[in-house]
Amino acid sequence: MATTTTTGASNSTDPPPPSSSSASAKTGFLKTCFNGVDVLSGSLVCHARSTEHGSWSSLAVFLAIAVICCYTGILLQRCMDASPLVTTYPDVGALAFGRRGRLLVAAFMYLELYLVAVDFLILEGDNLHKLFRGAGFRLGGLRVPRASPLVHWAGMPSAISLYSFCFSGHAVFPMIYNGMKERRKFPMVLFICFALSTLSYGFMGIVGYLMNGDALMSQVTLNLPSGKVSSKVAIYTTLVNPLTKYALVVAPIAEAIEASLGVLVRTALVVGTAVVALAVPFFADVVALTGALLSCTATMLLPILCYLRVRAKVGSRSRGWRRRPAWLLLWLVPPMLC
């Protein structure tokens, strides 16, 4: 059996076969798809707000961002296949640019995950307030809004930021990839996950905007009529969703620093996110900030840069047409971030 060296990336693009001891712990195709959709569907309730910011034409931008993020997810897989030592997103940065690359990717990744955890707490607080203390939210019922313009240019930057946040799952993709039984099917998993998530987001954005128009709030659940059983069911479902993801989002941050700071790190992280959520209780603003500063870079720009750098190091196997989309996006993504 061949041994694995630790001096660099392997020239083979095939992932190493899983050992027999870990094969039983791997997830199947359907479960991996479920995990991927779960990761990508975290901001479903605020997608209608994104459509309201940019109006109907922003849905074309949303579809473009979905395609770009799906492609950059595949680029992450190719980077991980370049070396059996790469298991996390910061490892990809280290493989591409050394220690500085690891620090840069880790900074964007962990700060993004931290703000996502804050977003979850704000989401919980807003919906609990709606459910039990919703005296301040009085709606005359659902309605079809008046004619709306095709484009809101002033709201387009906010819409792009919110759309980018919708697909900010790249920090978790390496863990999902490493947990697969059949890693060669990961591109198909990404395609299915992004397709289902895009359809869900698109449906929620269109219906939510049609029903509420300019009165749409940061979360579509806050526009639901109070006192109805169906509204309570929808809000309770929304409350459960962040609870199932909060620990998953915080875990990578805790694992990265608890070795040096002790066992109280997880508690400190939870307290810290709660304090930030109380200090900045504006869900849409925090989500837009996360999408603009972190998600766009972590999900689109960094995977492209790492892939091109890794391919330049590994050799000529991926020269030609396989690199052209990455080079094209390298010119298109930075203006989008600005």
From TrEMBL:
The keyword DNA damage does not apply. Its main location: membrane. InterPro entries: AA_transpt_TM (IPR013057). One of its GO terms (biological process) is amino acid transport. Residues 53-134, 152-326 form the Amino acid transporter transmembrane domain. It is found in: Membrane. It comes from the Eukaryota. The chain crosses the membrane at residues 56-76, 103-123, 160-177, 189-211, 233-251, 263-283, 289-310. GO terms for cellular component: membrane. Residues 1-13 have a biased composition (Low complexity). Keywords: Amino-acid transport, Membrane, Transmembrane, Transmembrane helix, Transport. Pfam families: Aa_trans. The keyword Transmembrane applies. Residues 1-24 are annotated as: Disordered. This is Amino acid transporter transmembrane domain-containing protein.
